[in-house]
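[Meeting: bench + compute handoff]

Bench side (C.D.) handed over the final construct sequence. Compute side (W.E.) agreed to return the predicted structure before the next meeting so the bench team could plan truncations. Sequence as handed over:
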Amino acid sequence: MPKSLFVDPKKVRKAEILKIKDIPVNQYQSNFEKELKTYGADRLKRILYDMQTIRAFETMLNTFKTQGAWENIEYNHKGPAHLSMGQEAAAVGQCVNLGIDDFIFGSHRSHGEILAKCYSAVEKLSEKELEKIMKEFLGGDTLKMAEKIGYKNVKDLAENFVLYGTLAEIFARNAGFNRGLGGSMHAYFLPFGSMPNNAIVGGSADIATGSALFKRINKKKGIVISNVGDAALGCGPVWEAMMMAAMDQYNNLWPESVGGAPPILFNFFNNFYGMGGQTCGETMGYQYVARVGAGVNPDNMHAERVDGYNPLAVADAIARKKEILLKGKGPVLLDTITYRVSGHSPSDASSYRTKEEIEAWEKADAIEEYKNYLIKNKLITKSDAEKQEQAIREKLIQVVKLAVNDEESPRASAAFIESVMFSNTKAEKMEEGKPEVLDVNPETNVRLKAIAGKTRSAFGADGKPVSKNKTFQYRDGLFEAMFHRFTIDPTMAAWGEENRDWGGAFAVYRGLTEALPYQRLFNSPISEAAIVGAGVGYAMSGGRAVVELMYCDFMGRAGDEIFNQASKWQSMSAGLLKMPLTVRVSVGNKYGAQHSQDWSAIVAAIPGLKAVFPATPYDAKGMLNYALRGTDPVIFFESQKLYDKGEEFEKEVPAGYYEVPEGEPAIRKTGKDITIATLGATLYTAMDTAKILQEKYGMDAEVIDIRWINPLNYEKLVESVKKTGKILLASDAAERGSYLHTVASNIGALAFDYLDAPPAVLGSRNWITPAPECEHYYFPSTEWMLDTIHERIIPLKGHTPKSVQTTMDIMRKNRMGV
């Protein structure tokens, strides 16, 4: 427990001088005899072959982009081509001492990394292993194409497979590694340990951290490398990832048997530029990337600058750092210096660089230097190198001819793209095994004992309300769903701010601390990007992750991770990846403008996310059960207004397992005169409004709890409107841009002939959320609902409006921008 880590004022106030450990810079010394003994002649020669292949591949792409043809083959490549010509030694050297259990996550400039990692795997795997992987991947589609290219043996065929699979992906072909849905910046090949590459600068850092967490928590082999550029040090999520990877709790609080810190290596391919900005001298001030490790932990993250123009220097560094990581002593930071002689992309004329600088680096070309090193030491001849280059070119020509042929290499259909937006599968557990638990005994676990003594309905047998302390609450429903899945799925892990000893900021997890070992439920830094990003990496690596954002407003701090990462990897992988990630998001009130917003509309606008907003304890448990048995990313909204609510609609909340049917709204009250549909906590306001409508105006309202954001089945809504002819939609989200406008628009299209008036949408004011004393100005109330019905749907006899809800006021508010 953190309380065992005594913060001693005498110690922390003591005067002293911190001394920083030395950080090695380019310390590798070439020794051919030692290198030959370490790697053998074939492997040393293979390094040159791999570098030459990457250079040929990148040159080919650059030629297509700039000239529209290569080797008399015409092709209009419409997509991007962020090339790494000049960086081949860094990519190849990195993979020399890695196996397929070692993962690499890359950046948008990643073609070289994919080829290097895959070629390294081809070299290390047996022919039998290679055949099995190629035959099983995509039902053999990529292999069938590779077999059309000449080959001598299985390993040669595997090279065809890698080259075609990568190029076909870049050219958006159906037999590409991701069926063409990832493209140039997102290609990867999981069976060889080449993990998803990322178009967002620095985007791989926190995802790779999550993958390393998965390896450590689930005792998997290998290490994880995050390859990002030097400019990524300007990105907050990269720093958040390093901080999360360096948490002291791995060694202070986690069981020793887990193995220590996650095996994550942050490798900065330092080419000294971020697009057109020069990082060293202009847009950064660190001078040496390796220096920043000193700011993360006392070990300087074992930081080191490595000469990335020498593949053997890189290979040596990776071997040494891998040993550190496998011992649980990470994280590690490498400053791997390299240089891209090409522009940021083919449209970049490099006007920000001098001709002399580019020529100086071209003169120091890593491929030429390494080739000459092998020639000098009589391992190859100049003629050998030239023949090898020619053989690579001839193989690539065959690959390109196949990849540009529309008939031979068709593209995925629109129907297929739609089919892989979600996995729509269920998994009781992500892998076999017995979950690690502590106190799950209902007789000794305090939370389980407390729940056992509660009434599982808001009302007693006499129909009277039960006190909140004796009622099974919304938060209890969430707890039971979490507890259930933790006892079934050995991979499931949860983290966020105050997740453990507080039991979560809203007491949802109280009792889980006693039930689970530290590695399955832990506090994270206040780093929302890393919290969610690590969840993405953990999920795509094969585990189930539940991450919590204490307030909905904090989604802004994890925007990329939610909207660009969690939402897209299943579809960009053509369904090869699954994303069993649940993001619990608490929607607040009483805490002012930056802690009280409902951002469900933003989530609704992003393809690839499932999203729910339960309003009752029954739904809280059943919908979280649904989320935790699926393999899709679910944004799980919870209103803070509801955590202590008892169940008012179902007979009781079942003690056993159940799920709420996907996409189905719930009719909370039947009626015939008007439909009121709500999302979130406004359900209870709508129920009060329905009572007033009946008692005061003789109007019988049907109340529907939409509860699902995506997917949503409109049948019950449409049938209700066909019956009533009128609908009011309400939620606590700001009215402008509310998700309910989408619902209203669809109802207008689906039930137009049955509507007596346009659907009316009611939301919170388009303001900042004011102080709690003024919230009655802001959130929808029964008065607002009645006034909206009166002014915009049907006049209520004898009704005197207390607020302005007219169509003229809609005009005024939009004109004013409020």
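W.E. noted at the follow-up: The radius of gyration is 30 Å. C.D. will use this when planning the next construct.
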